[in-house]
Amino acid sequence: MTIEVIVADDQPLMRAAIRACLDAEPDLTVVAEAGDGATAVRLTEQLRPDIVVMDVRMPVMSGIEATRRIVRLNGGRPVRVLVMTTFDVDEHIVEGLRAGASGFLVKDATPDELLGAVRVIARGQAQLSPSVTRRLLDLHGASLPPVHDPAADIVAALTPRELAVVKLAARGLPNGEIAQALGLASNSVKTYIAHILTKLGLTDRVQLVVFAYEHELIRPGWRTPAANGQLDPQGPNSTSAPTGR
Predict the structure, then answer these.
(1) DSSP label at 127?
(2) Terminus-to-terminus CA distance in the chain, angstroms?
(3) What would the pLDDT profile of 11-43 be if each residue is shown by its tens digit?
(4) Which of 19, 113, 162, 206 could be stapled to 126 by a disulfide with Cβ–Cβ 3.0 to 4.6 Å?
(5) How many CB atoms lie within 10 A of CB 126?
(6) What are the φ and ψ backbone dihedral angles of 66, each rounded to 5 degrees?
(7) What is the pLDDT of residues 87-106, one digit of tens each?
(8) What is the DSSP letter of 210?
């Protein structure tokens, strides 16, 4: 099955480069280009591609607002958004993830990284590598406003083991490292993640990262080794390991 993509970027040269990269692959095809966010939303509503590769800073409508509108489109198949950004310039990447983007990529990424990200997101997964996650949230996590909603008490709905999984996933660890830290099988971690997403009403791992930072379950820069050499899922102030369900 061919993955259909819309490329949204206000720079014609960047759009052409991305299009050439994607169209060279037999399983990918660019069905349209947009030079601003409003056009991206309109074309997405008309064509219903699988993926929109979205620049953040664009005229008429920002990539963040365009992302928010695209992921909320009713009818037809859901469309996922891959945000492209520049870390040293873009101050809005966290807001892009909050808007519903399924992943992000820096503009100096390699062609293979772009192709891999598009394919991963098209399969319904989030594209969020551990190293980029840590760098992103170290840069921007401090600006996230805390969310306090005692009435909902969402965090309290998590079991101790689920909370430990959330904290490790929020630091960008893949399932294998989470399993090693908690003494679980990788398949069990995958099941935990799926169950947690359902319980919290989230769509993917990217939103789980933002949730953890908004609810202050973890802070930027946390990567504290536990006494046994594994990562401490409870954070730097923890003195005990998580308990099971």
Answers:
(1) B
(2) 41
(3) 999 999 999 999 999 999 999 999 999 999 999
(4) 206
(5) 20
(6) -65, -40
(7) 654 556 667 777 888 887 87
(8) H
